């Protein structure tokens, strides 16, 4: 792993590096360098070009994430609220890593350049190729038990939208309870996982997967319309700057949610609600409900109009599909 990371950090400038130069910088033989290059291509889908007489290079420069630079660029408030920032090359899942690290301080953020088993809700997979997108989890600590956290995934999604809007991304929408859409396609997913007891203190791992520059070859397993930021922005986008902006929003938002609940986030949710007014299907564990989405209530429950009545649903085991959306697979 360490070697792969080192070789990629050398190639990240997008220039040619000869096999001999790489071998001497890495303290390896030329054939060992070749094996590492093959691993990058075959296992991590990084298309290293090999040109006789010139060496190896990436088709374009690649920005790897650096913790020190991110911390230095954070706002004073976010820096104060950050427990620790850890950047890993490859993890099973950033959520899993935090869930298995019980002594980690509140406000810890773990970021991975690659997830081997990135996850969505209810066992679904989150496609997470190396160095292309952002995958990170933030540990929030809350008093008062899980019941107070029903709207947290909405608050997190609103905070992500605020951070992206501040960086010039337009046409963002929110799909209850945890998706961020760009031009109607899935751009970002939020996954909250809780540890704690009813009424007691709670540790919440908030995972965010955001598509920045997804290689189409890596995305063949995504079974619903998706997009990434690069397709909608004219200039190349810095993952480093994006992550800093996201943490600037998310770290204070956790504290705000603890003090004020969903209230400071409601207006933005309603403004960006991508399904309000549309015919929808709600996939419940035992049945499917058809109706018209009518926004959310003050707790973040989904409102559905059906047979002239309004019903409210809390997220848990529910999946929402709009009438026009293809019925893509769900794991259960
Ligand atoms: P729900 O409405 O139940 O949350 P969902 O399809 O949005 O349904 P999530 O658990 O939020 O489910 O996300 C997992 C799903 O997202 C996968 O099943 C796949 O369809 C899609 N997906 C996986 N990886 C990506 C990605 N990198 N970008 C966009 N979509 C993805």
Automatic annotation (TrEMBL):
It comes from the Bacteria. The keyword Transmembrane does not apply. GO terms for cellular component: cytoplasm. The keyword Cell membrane does not apply. It holds the Pfam family HTH_11. Residues 64-258 form the BPL/LPL catalytic domain. Its EC number is 6.3.4.15. Keywords: ATP-binding, Biotin, DNA-binding, Ligase, Nucleotide-binding, Repressor, Transcription, Transcription regulation. Gene3D superfamilies: 2.30.30.100, Bira Bifunctional Protein, Domain 2, Winged helix-like DNA-binding domain superfamily/Winged helix DNA-binding domain. GO terms for molecular function: ATP binding; biotin--[biotin carboxyl-carrier protein] ligase activity; DNA binding. Coiled coil: none annotated. Biotin binds at residues 93-95, 115, 119-121, 186. It catalyses: biotin + L-lysyl-[protein] + ATP = N(6)-biotinyl-L-lysyl-[protein] + AMP + diphosphate + H(+). Residues 19-38 bind DNA. GO terms for biological process: regulation of DNA-templated transcription. Acts both as a biotin--[acetyl-CoA-carboxylase] ligase and a biotin-operon repressor. In the presence of ATP, BirA activates biotin to form the BirA-biotinyl-5'-adenylate (BirA-bio-5'-AMP or holoBirA) complex. HoloBirA can either transfer the biotinyl moiety to the biotin carboxyl carrier protein (BCCP) subunit of acetyl-CoA carboxylase, or bind to the biotin operator site and inhibit transcription of the operon. Belongs to the biotin--protein ligase family. This is Bifunctional ligase/repressor BirA. It comes from Thiohalophilus thiocyanatoxydans.
């Amino acid at each position: 792993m360490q070697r792969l990371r080192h070789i990629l950090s050398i190639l990240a400038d997008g220039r040619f590096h000869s096999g001999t130069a790489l071998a001497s910088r890495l303290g390896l033989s030329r054939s060992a360098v070749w094996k590492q290059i093959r691993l990058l291509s075959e296992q991590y889908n990084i298309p290293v070009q090999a040109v006789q007489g010139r060496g190896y290079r990436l088709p374009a420069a690649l920005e790897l994430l650096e913790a020190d630079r991110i911390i230095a660029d954070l706002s004073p408030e976010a820096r104060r609220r950050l427990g620790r920032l850890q950047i890993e090359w490859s993890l099973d899942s950033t959520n899993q890593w935090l869930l298995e690290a019980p002594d980690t301080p509140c406000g810890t953020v773990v970021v991975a350049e690659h997830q081997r088993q990135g996850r969505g809700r209810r066992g679904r997979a989150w496609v997470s190729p190396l160095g292309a997108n952002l995958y990170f989890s933030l540990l929030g600590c809350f008093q008062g038990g899980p019941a107070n956290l029903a709207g947290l995934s909405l608050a997190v999604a609103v905070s992500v939208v605020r951070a992206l809007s501040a960086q010039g991304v337009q046409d963002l929408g929110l799909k209850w309870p945890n998706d961020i859409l760009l031009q109607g396609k899935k751009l970002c997913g939020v996954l909250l996982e809780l540890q704690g007891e009813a009424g007691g203190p709670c540790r919440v791992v908030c995972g965010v997967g955001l598509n920045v520059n997804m290689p189409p070859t890596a995305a063949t397993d995504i079974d619903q319309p998706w997009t990434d930021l690069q397709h909608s922005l004219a200039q190349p986008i810095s993952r480093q700057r994006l992550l800093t902006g996201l943490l600037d929003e998310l770290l204070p938002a956790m504290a705000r949610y603890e003090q004020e609940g969903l209230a400071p986030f409601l207006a933005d949710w309603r403004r960006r609600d991508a399904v309000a007014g549309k015919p929808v299907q709600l996939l419940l564990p035992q049945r499917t409900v058809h109706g018209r989405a009518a926004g959310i209530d003050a707790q973040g429950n989904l409102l559905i109009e059906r047979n002239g009545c309004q019903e409210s649903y809390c997220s848990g085991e529910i999946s929402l599909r709009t009438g026009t959306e293809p019925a893509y697979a769900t794991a259960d």
